[in-house]
């Protein structure tokens, strides 16, 4: 193998490892907070407050969706449920956008890789984008009763099976049905359960279901960031695309059809920033990438109708571009702060706590590959939470 190829592979591996180690403590913290949300925020608390069709319900849908750690596919059943319970198309669209665009896990990783400024701007931009998009959907689409919306199952395990919703069907998950009936094989713990039981159930959800669901995409994002860091020359983007709206449109063309969750998009954005992408263009990628992909758009047609889905996609495109342009035009200090953060973050080697956190995160990511993923319990359920023999 040529020496240059070996050097390139070594550089990619080193860059990817550095990003993984720097992200690990914040990723674990984000998963822990996600577990707390799962354990102590009742499912009905969200659904019961989004039953209106006015501007207030749109804003509330954006705010409630923002901290939830669901990707653009995992949010589909939850959005179908709030639509079934009477939420307007605008509120449903706002929830569909704000939930995958940001979350406690992605904000933690954003702080680690992009700095505190972007960690604040990203969730704020997500909420504003989702709210404006929801209002846009309401303004352009006359709402009809939601009886035709697909019915979402109430098991947390079913939050990661969007394919059946694309066909307008409930998820035929035996464990979901049995758990709803109360066999205890997973699902959300009762709010009357002891504190420790709810806490452990939330942690099991975060590290046993949520992390395996997004972990592969996060690792892919880390690897892609390493490839970009090692192979793309400095200021490559500025030299080829310049500044302004051109790189934003290029990023948007890639981000809309691409499946990338909010956490996985963060290391990619960090690598692109180092190579000359502006913070505004990076924000476009961070907003549009997690909010859209081919599968989500297909289901949006089912939940929102054709006009509602078209309004939803148009709103994401317009609002993401507007957010990126505003960031570059009116907040030039963010670019300097982000550049300084990126320039200094890689100079010092990660400390021992970061390496320990990386080892724990790697073990959590690898465990499902070696564990017996699906077992059967006495009631006939199958799933990772079913009792093991």
TrEMBL record:
<feature type="transmembrane region" description="Helical">
    <location>
        <begin position="26"/>
        <end position="46"/>
    </location>
</feature>
<dbReference type="GO" id="GO:0005886">
    <property type="term" value="C:plasma membrane"/>
</dbReference>
<keyword id="KW-1133">Transmembrane helix</keyword>
<keyword id="KW-1003">Cell membrane</keyword>
<keyword id="KW-0472">Membrane</keyword>
<feature type="transmembrane region" description="Helical">
    <location>
        <begin position="58"/>
        <end position="80"/>
    </location>
</feature>
<feature type="transmembrane region" description="Helical">
    <location>
        <begin position="249"/>
        <end position="274"/>
    </location>
</feature>
<dbReference type="InterPro" id="IPR005524">
    <property type="entry name" value="DUF318"/>
</dbReference>
<feature type="transmembrane region" description="Helical">
    <location>
        <begin position="280"/>
        <end position="300"/>
    </location>
</feature>
<protein>
    <submittedName>
        <fullName>SO_0444 family Cu/Zn efflux transporter</fullName>
    </submittedName>
</protein>
<comment type="similarity">
    <text>Belongs to the UPF0718 family.</text>
</comment>
<feature type="transmembrane region" description="Helical">
    <location>
        <begin position="214"/>
        <end position="237"/>
    </location>
</feature>
<dbReference type="Pfam" id="PF03773">
    <property type="entry name" value="ArsP_1"/>
</dbReference>
<dbReference type="InterPro" id="IPR052923">
    <property type="entry name" value="UPF0718"/>
</dbReference>
<feature type="transmembrane region" description="Helical">
    <location>
        <begin position="352"/>
        <end position="370"/>
    </location>
</feature>
<feature type="transmembrane region" description="Helical">
    <location>
        <begin position="312"/>
        <end position="332"/>
    </location>
</feature>
<keyword id="KW-0812">Transmembrane</keyword>
């Amino acid at each position: 193998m040529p020496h240059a190829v070996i050097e390139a592979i070594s550089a990619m591996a080193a860059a990817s490892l550095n990003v993984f180690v720097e992200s690990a403590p914040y990723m674990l913290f984000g998963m822990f907070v996600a577990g707390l949300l799962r354990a102590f925020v009742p499912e009905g608390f969200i659904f019961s407050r989004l039953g209106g069709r006015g501007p207030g319900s749109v804003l509330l849908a954006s705010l409630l969706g923002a901290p939830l750690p669901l990707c653009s596919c995992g949010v589909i059943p939850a959005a179908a449920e709030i639509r079934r319970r009477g939420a307007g198309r605008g509120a449903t669209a706002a929830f569909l956008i704000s939930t995958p665009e940001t979350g406690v896990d992605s904000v933690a990783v954003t702080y680690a890789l992009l700095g505190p400024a972007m960690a604040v701007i990203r969730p704020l931009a997500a909420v504003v984008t989702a709210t404006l998009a929801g209002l846009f959907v309401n303004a352009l689409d006359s709402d009809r009763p939601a009886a035709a919306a697909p019915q979402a199952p109430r098991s947390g395990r079913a939050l990661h099976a969007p394919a059946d919703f694309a066909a307008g069907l409930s998820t035929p998950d035996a464990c979901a049905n049995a758990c709803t009936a109360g066999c205890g094989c997973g699902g959300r713990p009762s709010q009357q359960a002891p504190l420790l039981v709810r806490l452990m159930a939330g942690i099991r959800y975060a590290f046993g279901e949520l992390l395996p669901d997004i972990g592969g995409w996060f690792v892919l994002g880390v690897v892609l960031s390493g490839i970009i860091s090692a192979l793309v020359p400095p200021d490559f983007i500025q030299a080829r695309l310049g500044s302004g709206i051109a790189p934003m449109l290029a990023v948007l063309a890639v981000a809309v059809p691409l499946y990338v969750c909010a956490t996985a998009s963060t290391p990619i954005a960090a690598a692109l920033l180092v190579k000359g992408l502006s913070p505004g263009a990076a924000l476009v990628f961070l907003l549009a990438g997690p909010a859209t992909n081919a599968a989500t758009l297909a289901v949006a047609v089912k939940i929102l109708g054709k006009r509602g889905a078209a309004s939803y996609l148009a709103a994401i495109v317009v609002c993401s571009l507007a957010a990126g342009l505003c960031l570059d035009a009116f907040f030039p200090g963010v670019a300097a702060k982000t550049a300084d953060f990126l320039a200094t973050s890689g100079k010092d080697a990660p400390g021992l706590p970061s390496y320990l956190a990386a080892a724990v995160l790697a073990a959590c990511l690898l465990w499902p590959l070696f564990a017996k993923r699906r077992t059967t319990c006495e009631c006939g359920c199958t799933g990772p939470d079913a009792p093991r023999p």
